[in-house]
Specification:
This protein is α+β, with helices and mostly antiparallel strands. The chain is built from three helices and 13 strands; from the N terminus they run αββαβββαββββββββ. The structure holds succinic acid and fe (ii) ion.
Length: 212
C-alpha cells in the first residue's frame, strides 16, 4: 500500500525517547498561523511577569477554555483573560482534531486539549528551563507545534540542569512530550536572527494542553 511504502521511506513520527515523539513538517502552517493571527487580534500578545516580578521575554496569548497565566499572584490557568476580561477564543475543531490525531499516533488515545498557550519569540529571546506543571492530569501529554524561524528545543530530565538533549524545531514540526517525559525540564535556546516568509523574524509555538 502506498501509505506503508511512504511511511517506511519517510516515517511521519519519530520516537526520540520514551514519551517524546517528533513529527517533522506535520501541520499546515498557513492554517495554524492564520489562527494565531486571529487569536492575537482578539487578545494581543503580551509580556507577563513571573510571580517574582520578572518580565517574561517570550510574549504570550491563549485560546481554549483556559489560558495559562502568570503574574505576581502565581502561575495558573485562567478561564478568561485577566487583563481584558475577555474569554479566550476557542480552539477551532479542525485544529483540535489534528492535535488529537497526532497524540493518538503517539499512544495518547483520548487527548482533547482544553487550552493552547501561544508563544512568540523575537530574535535574541530564549525560554529558560522550566517544567509544565500547572495542569491537573499529568497522564495527558503536551503537544507542541512550531511555526516560522527554527529554534533549538532543549530537553533535560526530571531534575533541573544537566546536559540537554537538543531537538531542532522547524516550521510545521509537531512534538509531543508525555508519559515519563511529561514533567521533564525544557528550554528554548536564544532565537537566531533569521527570516521566514510567513512569520518574518519571529518564531511562534503553540502548546496544546489539558489544563483541567
Ligand atoms: C514551552 O515550553 O512552553 C514552549 C516550548 C517551545 O517554544 O518550543
Ligand atoms: Fe513548557
Amino acid at each position: 500500500m502506498q501509505n506503508d511504502l511512504f511511511s517506511s521511506i519517510a516515517p511521519e513520527m519519530e520516537k526520540i525517547a520514551d514519551g517524546v515523539h517528533y513529527f517533522r513538517n506535520y501541520v499546515d502552517g498557513d492554517l495554524f498561523f492564520e489562527q494565531i493571527m486571529e487569536v492575537a487580534r482578539i487578545i494581543p500578545f503580551r509580556h507577563m511577569v513571573t510571580p517574582g516580578g520578572k518580565r517574561i521575554n517570550v510574549a504570550g496569548t491563549s485560546m481554549g477554555d483556559a489560558g495559562w497565566y502568570s503574574d505576581r499572584r502565581g502561575y495558573r490557568y485562567e478561564k478568561s483573560d485577566p487583563l481584558s476580561g475577555k474569554d479566550w477564543p476557542p480552539i477551532p475543531k479542525n485544529i483540535n482534531h489534528i492535535i488529537s490525531e497526532a497524540a493518538a499516533k503517539a499512544g495518547y488515545e483520548n487527548f482533547n486539549a482544553d487550552s493552547c498557550f501561544i508563544n512568540r519569540y523575537q530574535p535574541g529571546v530564549q525560554l529558560t528551563q522550566h517544567q509544565d506543571q500547572d495542569e491537573q492530569d499529568f497522564s495527558q501529554p503536551i503537544v507542541s507545534v512550531s511555526l516560522g524561524v527554527s529554534a533549538i528545543f532543549q530537553l533535560y530530565g526530571d531534575i533541573r540542569g544537566g546536559t540537554a538533549y537538543n531537538i531542532p524545531l522547524h516550521h510545521c514540526d509537531l512534538l509531543i512530550f508525555g508519559g515519563p517525559a511529561r514533567k521533564y525540564f525544557h528550554s528554548v535556546k536564544k532565537l537566531k536572527t533569521d527570516n521566514h516568509p510567513l512569520t518574518g523574524d519571529k518564531r511562534y509555538n503553540l502548546t496544546f494542553r489539558k489544563a483541567f
